[in-house]
Amino acid sequence: MSVLGEGADGVRGGARPGRRALLKAAPAVLLGVAGCAGGGSAGAPPTARPGSTATGPVSRLPDVGVWRPSPGDVRPEVKERAVELVRAIGAWPAGERGAARARVGALGLAPSLVDQAGPLRPAGAEAVLEVVVAQYGGILADTASVLVVCRQWVRRDDGAVVAGGTTVDVRLRRARPRWEVTALHPAAPGAPSAAPGEAARRVLAAGPAIELPPAAAADVRSGAVHTSVLEALLELARKHRLGVSVVRSGHPLKVFGTDRPSDHPRGRAVDVWRIDGRAVVDPATPRRLVESLMRAAAAAGSYNIGGPYLLSGGTAGQFFSDDTHRDHVHMGFGT
After folding, report:
1. What is the reported pLDDT for 42?
2. Which residues, 6+ apart, have CB-to-CB distance to 228 below 8 Å?
3. How distant is the alpha carbon of residue 4 from its chain centre?
């Protein structure tokens, strides 16, 4: 496989380069599955305070669905490996939070990975985890990055249930009999801005038109997402319902497999994994729907649009496609 990531082509305007987780014997109803190599992840390594992506209290632990790969996924076994590790760490039955190392070891993975889980392990007596999406941050012949975007509900010791979640950049390398996880980089979005801009407030209030998972919503609240990204989301949401996967945090700092900085940690990119309720990676999703969003992104000012199809037209290198972008549409914005 070739090097995969944001815009593998050239320079725009001469200014900068183009871009480009088995819980042991636990009830399935409790343990719904949660479910980019080079550089750390945006928002820094796993040092975020627990609960930093929390979305507020709810009345009970919900029943959560089980994530499964799509028939359109590239190397689905790689995503499954990342998801089962995140699940083993971030969901636990009553009283078994401290057994995370044993659960990870039962997967044939290094128990020390638990030490890198950060916000995936908030304090609590019981937790369930649901994957929003497992998206590639990069996939090469022998290495991969899977961005596991998840929601999490934790029952605290006092009985209260708190909803939250994070995005975890799971790094893997090819091994036998299964791929091996080498590192975890959870999102660290940062504190909310005291005075978010108008575009940020509108995106956060857009409801089902712009679906933001916990880490992405926290990115917007932090004030670290550029106005060009926010305004483009608002414009695109006039015609489409957008399922956002990653904005800034939880994404690799560098374009996968290269030394080039990614636009994501700079707050100048967004990835969309679902359009009008249809997953980009699903073979049943009409090609015209995905192409429509990609061209609309160009019209909204994106200089660097990646997806499952290589489109004609646009400026040099504006559209690109590779295996990493089979499962989402990437939109990058310049200065």
Report:
1. 57
2. 268, 301, 333, 334
3. 16
**Tens-place pLDDT, residues 5-50:** 565 333 233 333 333 333 333 323 233 333 332 345 554 333 333 3
Tokens 């880490």 -> residue: 215
50-75 burial string, b = 16+ CB within 10 Å, else e? Answer: bebbbbeeeeebeebeebebbebbbb
pLDDT (0 to 100) of residue 15: 34
Question: How is residue 220 written in tokens?
Answer: 């917007």
Locus of tokens 């791929």: 179
Side-chain-facing half-sphere of 80: CA atoms under 13 Å: 13
As given in the structure block, the two tokens for residue 284 are: 């049943």
Pairing of strands 242-246, 269-275: antiparallel
Which pLDDT belongs to residue 253? Answer: 87
Q: Is 270 helix (H, G, I), strand (E, B) or coil?
A: strand
Task: Note the pLDDT tens digit of each residue in 127-146.
Answer: 999 999 999 999 999 999 99
Q: Which residues pair with 332 in a beta bridge?
A: 269, 304
In the predicted model, residues of the chain with pLDDT beneath 50 are 1-4, 8-39, 43-54
| Neighbour tally for 203: CB within 10 Å | 27
Cα 190 to Cα 151, 216, 222, 237, 315, distances in angstroms: 18, 11, 6, 26, 35
Q: Are 18 and 9 in contact (CB under 8 A)?
A: yes
Specify the DSSP class assigned to residue 64. Answer: -
How far apart CA 151 and CA 216 sit, in angstroms, is 11
Residue 335, pLDDT score: 66
Dihedral sign, Cα of residue 116, residue 50, residue 264, residue 274:
positive
pLDDT value of position 23 = 31
3-state secondary structure of 131: strand
Which of 100, 76, 98, 137 is closest to 22 using CA atoms? 100
Contact 44, 117 (CB under 8 A): no
